[in-house]
Amino acid sequence: MKAAVRVRDLCKDYVLGSEVVRALRGVSIDVPHSDYVAIMGPSGSGKSTLLNVLGCLDRPSAGQYLLDGKDTSQMDDDQLSEIRAGRIGFIFQSYNLINQFNVLENIETPLYYMGRVSSRQRQRCRELAAMVGLEDRLGHRPAQLSGGQQQRVAIARSLANDPAFILADEPTGNLDSETSAEILTLLSRLNREGRTIIMVTHEDEVARHTKRIIRLRDGYIQSDVLT
């Protein structure tokens, strides 16, 4: 079976004046379909850089990144934009909802970028809202929702484009412990249903909900263990 994500000898350098900062130093990772992975590491370990590369927000300096078998390393900016819109579901710590949009419109956002929101797709987005328990909040705007509800909107939005994988960046970072547990339970349920999830976190308690923990240090993989 093709891996959802395959990274080979990935390197990323940043030039800061006369200094070269080596953020990633030959990272290789395979993430099979239906895996649930936590990426961890201290500040400066390279996890944010890896997140940006996996999300097609940044390009590697060297190495290869295959997403569903397609080599993103060779794509131009327009192609990468299409990949972000069509093949990756994003969940952010700060939710990143559009304040002027209601719940349903926010869930539909990835479809707008792809230039298509059919009646069938709108119904699918309604079903996603129901899946995260927000079927009675479709007309509400983000300011009318709690933090946990906003993150549920973000989770539903991440599924709107039927992505190859979900990339979650500290998804419980702004939530209290009870709401965090609810969000982690929802993510675990999505994984059991077959969704591939890669989650960046600095919290061991959050990482323990995943199937596998990859730890980075100084741009290298320090460990890769099953939980």
What is the number of beta strands? Answer: 10
Mean pLDDT: 94
List the uncertain runs. none
| Amino- and carboxy-terminal Cα gap | 22 Å
- The share of residues in helices is 25-40%
Q: What's the SSE pattern?
A: EEEHEEHEHHHEHEHEE
Rg over C-alpha atoms, rounded to the nearest angstrom: 17 Å
Which class best fits the helix and strand makeup?
alpha/beta
Q: What distinguishing features does this structure have?
A:
227 residues, alpha/beta, Rossmann fold, six-stranded mixed sheet, four-stranded antiparallel sheet, 10 strands
Task: Describe the SSE topology.
Layout: E1 3-16, E2 19-32, E3 36-40, H1 47-54, E4 62-67, E5 70-71, H2 77-87, E6 88-92, H3 103-113, H4 119-131, H5 147-159, E7 165-169, H6 177-192, E8 197-200, H7 204-207, E9 212-217, E10 220-226
Parallel strand pairs: 3-8, 3-9, 6-7, 7-8
Antiparallel strand pairs: 1-2, 1-4, 4-5, 9-10
Report on the architecture of this protein:
This protein is an alpha/beta fold. The protein has a single domain, classed as 3-Layer(aba) Sandwich (Rossmann fold), CATH 3.40.50.300. 33% of the residues lie in helices and 30% in strands. It contains seven helices and ten strands. The chain has helices at residues 47-54, 77-87, 103-113, 119-131, 147-159, 177-192, 204-207; strands spanning 3-16, 19-32, 36-40, 62-67, 70-71, 88-92, 165-169, 197-200, 212-217, 220-226. The radius of gyration is 17 Å and the shape is globular. The mean pLDDT is 94.
